[in-house]
Batch of 3 targets.
Target 1
Amino acid sequence: MFKKAVKDHPGGTSKPLQSNFLRANTVIPSKPAQPQSVGVKRKIDLTNGGESTLGSLHSSVYFDENDFDDDLDLDIDEPIALNIPSATSTTYAQKPDPVTYPTIDLTSPDSPEPLSAPANKPQSDIAYPDLPPASQEQAAPPSSMQYPWSSSPPSHFQPPPKPRTLPWLKEAKEEPLQEKKSNLVTPKRSKPAEPWNKSASAIKEEQKELRREYKKSQKADGAPKQRDNGKVAKVFLSDEQLHVVEAVVDHGKSIFFTGSAGTGKSVLMREIIKKLREKFKREPDRVAVTASTGLAACNIEGVTLHSFAGIGLGKEAVPELVKKIKKNQKARNRWLRTKVLIIDEVSMVDGDLFDKLEEIARRIRNNGRAFGGIQLVVTGDFFQLPPVPEGHGREARFSFAAATWNTTIQHTILLTHVFRQKDPEFASMLNEMRLGKISPKTIDAFRKLSRPLDFHDALEATELFPTRAEVENANSQRMSRLSGEVMTFHAVDSGTIQDPQHREKLLSNCMAPMAIHLKKGAQVMLIKNMEDTLVNGSIGRVVAFMDESTFDCYKDNEGVFVAGGNDNEEDAALRARKKLKPLAHKEGGVTVTRKWPLVSFVQPDGTERHLLCQPEAWKIELPNGEVQAQRQQVPLILAWALSIHKAQGQTLHRVKVDLGRVFEKGQAYVALSRATSQAGLQVMRFEPRKVMVHPKVTEFYSNLVSITQVIQSKKKKTGGADDFEDEL
Ligand SMILES: Nc1ncnc2c1ncn2[C@@H]1O[C@H](COP(=O)(O)OP(=O)(O)OP(=O)(O)O)[C@@H](O)[C@H]1O
Ligand SMILES: [Mg+2]
């Protein structure tokens, strides 16, 4: 049975509610321009080293004007002055905003009532903001308004009829709140004038056609399949992760799951997407896979949120955006057909954009429920990359501060088990860094990591840089030191977008470059999951270039080649070719084939694996299966150096970071948290002041508790039974 990450908050009955409280959620919203007045906060287990790491902040993101998928500029060229007023940012040394932690420490085994409110408080531990009661006559404020924020119609501000708890299995008994309101907020249908209001049979017919097209495209697509290719070992999800899958797939909940770097958010999201695709296998366009940036979208074979929405840059007011979408049949259909909307790397989604999309969804779908009834599955870590400010001196709003965040997201789940760093001491150091509260002991420990790494093989640590220019410079310097022929591999691009420039722009966000120049000896990173131990992020060295049949022969006779002398792989390949020639003649002639890089990867256990890196495919795919753009390229990039933007999401065994170069919030934490161990991390110029945390993010996370804590506290209350559903 699914257990919620946090206790639901019963709604107050005497005070008016604002939209944020209409749904059970874990986050106690703050009230801008007012001091924090939350009565009781639940505390994350910050003391639990390695179990819950928090982080710091970030670099800028923006969406390109034409395709909204271009995030090349995230590999920053120039240090950018922070647009965040100093009052809102804090360094490691400063305490974040005064935060009143609960009188009961959830992490303490002695806490008598871990999740209950203090005696002098009413049942609810939420301090409800003093907003005036919403009235029917009130016009809905524009979505761009900061506060009282909501672009929702006034009905969204109505309090629930009774304290809402929404446990999964009780839900059937409860009246769906949003349903009741829908007649208040759903715009009147005017069928004849609105061709997008198609009849059910017309939509069915359209979907049949879509399915046919999708099947056709699947068959016609000869590109190597990444999904379900059986090459990569099955992931065994942890209990925490399984709870999320259950809530999303079985219970259809709108969920935000979060956690520090390395808690398996991406692994979990891939699993959820797989499961949802199985659930909707007859209607693939029901699941929309999106992410905030082009790179993140490309990593999960989706599109950017802007692209999905069909809103261009999305700067206009909602009515104009709705008009724009209605004129674009494909975009309109996407909105109408989507049942589940996935948003990855949500920390970079602007709060205003979130509100606009929520309103657009309700309007286009003629459905007054939150997000027009679309289930949202959202993930990200707000301690990593923030949304980019739009200019005009306006600070970007985090999406958790969006007016409609809490009416949309039913449950927030905090993942606490860190998979990436197995050493609890290291995980705890990163945890402190994430929180922006670094102890002298941890500062010392990080400073000790300035020594060179001690590995005795040909692989060097990958150096992470904040700017693209530094990366290109470092990689090309290393390349020029190698002798030997340069082999260039050009990508083959295709897709439904015919305009080559537009397509190229979309594909420029892929990890795979349009052309890659390699030499024997080049250090490279694998950018696709190939096998259990050969995964996205594996680092290796090019040892030869050979064609497939030579490689087969090389593979089959590796022992003979190795026994044949001390020569290198190139010579071995030569011998293999010689061996192959007569064989080929026997079969009726030699076929001239292309040579691909043969790469020797060092696996986590120190052993070597050779892989002939033949082209793989990257797709930008719409929910209906239409592949807008596809790139086929060898799955490698140069890896002596990598930008922090491109390293985001990666797991690296050998990393070198010079914090003196880091200038943006989040860069330090993102960079250091790529490493799997202290032995594999070199940190130069460690300065605690480089580690900055946004107080709003600290506040947001301080109101979350981990699912494990909730289960434990409930167990205590129920004398061991881990079922706390009846208490919710
Ligand atoms: N259930 C699991 N079992 C074993 N390993 C796991 C599991 N979940 C994740 N991992 C491993 O942990 C590492 C980090 O996972 P992942 O990249 O999904 O974390 P993340 O939360 O997305 O981190 P980031 O915030 O840095 O992107 C990866 O090497 C991944 O293979
Ligand atoms: Mg990730």
Note: Residues 265-266, 649 surround magnesium ion (ligand 2) (CB under 6 Å).
Target 2
Amino acid sequence: QEINVEKVDSNKLSHKLLFNITIHGFLLWASMGFLMPVGILTIRMSNREECGRRLRILFQVHVISQMLAVLLATAGAVLSFKNFNNTFNNNHQRIGVALYGIIWLQFLIGFLRPNRGSKGRSVWFFAHWILGTAVSLMGVFSIYSGLQAYHEKTSRKIRIWTSLFTAEIVFICFFYLFQDKWSYIQRQGVILGNEIAGPTTDQEVPPREKQKELAMESC
Ligand code: HEM
Ligand code: HEM
């Protein structure tokens, strides 16, 4: 019977509900579809960084962007609890509620980190990395399913939004993979041991630079 009520309602969505759905969508897209992935890309830029000023800045950008992401997601959550039906009878709603909780957990875990070099740090990093990555992936899924729910409720076209979002995600994924390969790409033109990795043979790596690079990796 509840489903019938929803169907009847969906034919004449109130202005207010439509407005709230739109705000909900924008808040969560900005949060989990933009700030969160960008925050992850920034902290990943620090993977090869010396422990200096740049590292501190990248860390701060990570923390600030994730704080904003959690803030916007929380605003979107409050708005949806207040204005939507709270039946949690479809995947978008159920996964969405789980995500609201998990991002807060992840946020707290971020603050509870042991120092680098201490015993618990690896375990912490593993937990923070896997939860953060999973939350972001589920966020991407929720944005697609949210757009679908929007389409079902309003019968409006969503193709422009799904295309835009897909373009954004493709770009982010490319950058994510590129980060892992960047230093490898740079090294293609230099000689590693006896192996000739590039067409030119006269570009020896100065020993000091090589030492610096090794130091960076262990930092
Ligand atoms: C990571 C992103 C998102 C999360 C975590 C999320 C979460 C949720 C939750 C928990 C609900 C149920 C609220 C309640 O009944 O109290 C909901 C409903 C809804 N959301 Fe989202 N949402 C997200 C993105 C979006 C986007 C991008 C749109 C697009 C406009 C959207 C459209 C909707 C609609 C139309 C409903 C009502 C659905 C229904 O009654 O079946 N959501 N969302
Ligand atoms: C919901 C919010 C957050 C998400 C989704 C998130 C996600 C992530 C992810 C996925 C990584 C691993 C990146 C990689 O692949 O190398 C990471 C690293 C990190 N995060 Fe977060 N994070 C969040 C909040 C925080 C907060 C609040 C802090 C600190 C107060 C924090 C501190 C760190 C640090 C220090 C690292 C780097 C660890 C290392 O390389 O040793 N994060 N974060």
Note: The pocket of protoporphyrin IX containing FE (ligand 2) is lined by residues 36, 40, 43-44, 47, 59, 62-63, 66, 70, 103, 106-107, 110-111, 113, 125, 128-129, 132-133, 135 (CB under 6 Å).
Target 3
Amino acid sequence: GEIPKTYDELYNSGIEAYTSEDWYGTIDSLEKAIAEFKFYRSSLATCRLRCNNVTSQFEDGYLEQFDDLFFFDRVLRKAECLTRCKDKYLGHRPERISQEITNDFVLNVPYSYLQMAYYKTDQMEKAASAAYTFLLANPDDVMMNSNMDWYQANSGIENLVMEDMEAKPHQINYMQGQDAYGQEDWSEAIDYFEQSLEEFYKVDGECRSLCEGPHEYEEFQDLYISIGTHYHSVVNCRLNCFQKTSVLEGKFAGDFLPSIYHYLQYAYFQVGEPDKAVQCAVSYLLFLPEDEVMTKNMEFYETQTGINVDSYQPRDDAKLYHSRVTVEDSLKKFADSFMTLPSNVVADTPVEEFSEKKKGDIDDIDANNIEDDVEGEDVIIETSKAKYFGEIQNDDDDDVRSNMDNVTIVMTEKELNGTLRMVADLFASQMQCDQLIELALAGAVEGDGYSGKAKPHTTFETFSGLTVLNAAEKAREGLVKAEDALLYLDLSEKARRYVESYFKLPTRLFFSYTHLVCREAEPDAPQDRDDLSHPIHADNCWLDDKGNCIKKSPAYVWRDYSALMYLNEDFEGGEFIFARFNKTVEASVQPKCGRLVSFSAGEENLHGVKAVTKGRRCALAMWYTLDTKYDEKAHIEAREILENLQHDELYLRRIYQ
Ligand SMILES: O=C(O)CCC(=O)C(=O)O
Ligand SMILES: [Fe+3]
């Protein structure tokens, strides 16, 4: 028969039909494209999963006596199995389909065309659902947001139901489970949550196997280095699956998986199955061992039901998942220690997937407080509150932290009167601070970072700055010391790692912008000025006149965390303040050499700097993002420049010695 079209071909015909306003044609092609995309991905995943079970024709243990024959026997048998399987299910399809088009599918872009086509053909409900589906992956899209408002106001349909047309079974079951749970229909809740759990692991398995796709090599290297390089990107991609699968209504829900065990333990308890309840509780604690509510529940089980909780193991599914991720994470860290992840990682699942959503805003999945209802006992208190799921992936970040010589935390959320804030000392020695100030004096440019405006915030101070890349370039030109520029890179990396670990971030934190800055009071500035050196602001949104945080351009909306490492204290004024929009101060921090203040970059952390009335105040300012897209590549480039310099210098020394 006719060779079926691939999803990129169908997508292109859909767009062509759209351009010529052939709405039925658009719908036909795009619906087929979406179906084909799903078929393609699930077949690929199925083949890869199936081929995990290949067995060797050799006697058990026979190959293990030769160095790597056992390993390569499995590799070849898997390769053979995959070749056959792909041939059978995906026969005519090319090995690789345009990455750009694949990304469009991952980001629900076909639904933006479908939305219009459904609307034009008078299918309002579908049109609204398509708009909603597109928005889940592209929440900031201005056009689609206004379409959505329009549907809500003018569709003419009462109770217009908008569906996520890409909702996956683990998400649907989860939401149905929550409904049943809210109705206190425990056995139905158990069914849904068990189903959701099973589907979660299935989707996760598919996601992980889709990571095994092609990889752009610069060149083939040693056999093992090539394999290792490819595996590095695969394991990185696999670890990202947690983010991609733990999504509810388009948003990253950090405790999606553990919360299912939380719901289940309560529901099992309610239906009189305390054994299963404890198993679920123990499974939950595997992911979030420090959870207070669950720890209390365990005490309850122990004291009120007579169960010996210590004899319980987590469920097999939880154990398997947890230990796999733990091992993968340590393999990835090991790989990270000697090779860099290529920036052009090509896998079937783009790394950017869900980038809009992972931003680190961990949403409350459900704040559904379940009141005590077992004879007034002090029982299982509430369902899961949002928690970071950092424990799994950040295990040995604690080492990083303890390796940070003598860094000490001096203020936490409590003293700082807010959330996601901290102050720590001893990040740099006096000598290092002096070196960085010297670097700033030699290299910083007035108005750098503010379109050259030397006085961007107040007329009474001059602002100057130097980026990491400019520092390296100036070192190359001999304008600043290379070792100072290197220290700039090293200290900012030290801070980045500390912040990543301190806030237990589930994924890597990237630099988004790094700036060595000084603010210097004008010699004739009045001592009693009442303006600020830096007005109250949030780092990732702009505040309108009512103090609303607008997360739109020109704000740097992708910034998720900020940190400032102070370099001196010999100036007057210049305290850093956390403050409300009406300028009431929540906490104030006195800068000094080696002190780091760090906080999440949103409206929860409005801040500013009090007037510097005398002298010069210097700091290493860093803004970070969780979104790889905004990774400040300048750090790598700067390091390269400096390494080359160092290399040249050694070379010259050798010649002239
Ligand atoms: O220098 C400081 O203490 C804070 C500066 C700041 O908030 C910013 O540049 O966004
Ligand atoms: Fe700021």
Note: Confidence is low (pLDDT under 50) at residues 344-403, 650-657.
